[in-house]
Design goal:
It is a single chain. The chain has 373 residues and is of the alpha+beta class. Helices cover 47% and strands 14% of the residues.
């Protein structure tokens, strides 16, 4: 499962920060770098514009203490879809690919069933979705799912049936494609098995074999790209995701993955271009907006970074790293009070996160520097 928040390296969320004098004593990569900005009036105006943009979105985050007690809050009653996959004789099935899509067919997330045939998608937005599953030779009918505040958690039982030996053109990605030769499919399944056993090199060789036999094997290219991302082999990851996008130009998860690789390679122009095109396919993807925010942040385009991180948090206020980036933007804007709120929200959402100890030190520093209320 791509699970984009887990795939990203969030270190770019911690560049040099800006605080009031007296903060230079912070350790390590959180050392505050003070800069004179008085001669850069236009840049200051841009920063203030970002603050205005962010304030509207972050107003809700300042009430984080109230969320846990609000039964109608999407963040306190997290929307999710879970369920199980069974055969016609009511037996559960493990290692079945389950896809969650928008009603228009855009992939939201995908996973495989566990040893008990169960699956789960969390941190979803309310709305209507499509759910389907498949394994070699078998598939399920598309199941409509409607998530609302009155029913924030939906449980679905999907039943596998034998797939007819024909290629269904309307569902060419993520279902059985009769064009895929049996030996390519066998190689792909061996790769998934090796991956489950954490044998990455063996899995990569099987996925490579699958794509050699059948170059249009979307799932094999996606699996390869994710493997290469895990080991920081960016050129190979780029190639795999480019092939996946070539095969299915509307697969948002593939486009976002490619955009993230471009960011890691510092190919900002290419990343920005492909992700902005992806927004035309799905403007409600927090992953697209967050990745764009990071690209613009790394290019020191604070105004645009602020717009995208604000949109990302509007779509999903539970993305800890987005709050971290928002805090950095507020620091740049000379609004440490607002930054403190965002850093505290990061700690609430990721108390054991990669940067938790560093951010806690920064929070303590900010509390001491800010006037008492």
């Amino acid at each position: 499962m791509i699970n984009l928040a887990g795939r990203h390296d969030h270190k770019s969320c911690l560049p040099d920060l800006f605080l009031s004098p007296g903060s230079e004593s912070l350790p390590g990569n959180l050392r505050i770098v003070l800069r004179e900005e008085s001669s850069k009036v236009s840049q200051l105006l841009i920063v203030r514009t970002v603050s205005s943009i962010l304030l509207a979105v972050f107003f809700a985050t300042t009430t984080s203490a109230q969320r846990d007690y609000d039964p109608l809050s999407s963040s306190s009653s997290s929307f999710e879809v879970s369920g199980e996959v069974r055969t016609a004789n009511n037996r559960t099935v493990d290692n079945v690919l389950v896809r969650l899509e928008t009603v228009s067919g855009v992939l939201v997330d995908q996973t495989t069933t566990d040893g008990m045939g169960k699956f789960r998608f969390t941190r979803l937005r309310s709305g209507q979705y499509r759910l389907l599953a498949n394994s070699p030779g078998r598939g399920t009918q598309t199941q409509a799912v409607d998530i609302a505040r009155s029913s924030p958690r939906v449980y679905v039982v999907l039943q596998l049936v034998q797939e007819p030996p024909v290629f269904r053109s309307g569902e060419s990605i993520g279902v059985i494609d009769a064009r895929i030769p049996s030996d390519a499919r066998a190689a792909f399944e061996k790769g998934r098995a090796a991956l489950a056993e954490k044998k990455s090199d063996l899995a990569a060789s099987h996925f490579e074999k699958a794509t050699t036999i059948f170059p249009d094997y979307y799932d094999a290219h996606m699996s390869l790209g994710q493997l290469y991302m895990d080991v920081n082999r960016w050129e190979k990851a780029e190639y795999s995701f480019r092939q996946a996008v070539r095969i299915n130009p509307t697969a948002v998860v593939a486009i976002v993955s490619l955009g993230e690789v471009y960011r890691r390679e510092k190919k900002y122009g290419e990343g920005q271009k492909i992700l902005e095109e992806a927004l035309k396919l799905d403007n409600n993807s927090w992953q697209i907006n967050f990745t764009l925010a990071r690209i613009h942040w790394e290019q020191k385009d604070i105004a645009t970074a602020g717009r995208y991180v604000a949109r990302s948090l509007e779509l999903d206020p539970n993305v800890a790293e987005a709050h971290l980036l928002a805090g950095n933007i507020f620091i740049r804007a000379g609004m440490p009070g607002n930054a403190l709120v965002e850093y505290q929200e990061y700690l609430r959402l990721a108390p054991n996160g990669e940067f938790a100890s560093q951010i806690q030190a920064l929070v303590d520093k900010l509390k001491k520097s800010l006037p008492a209320k």
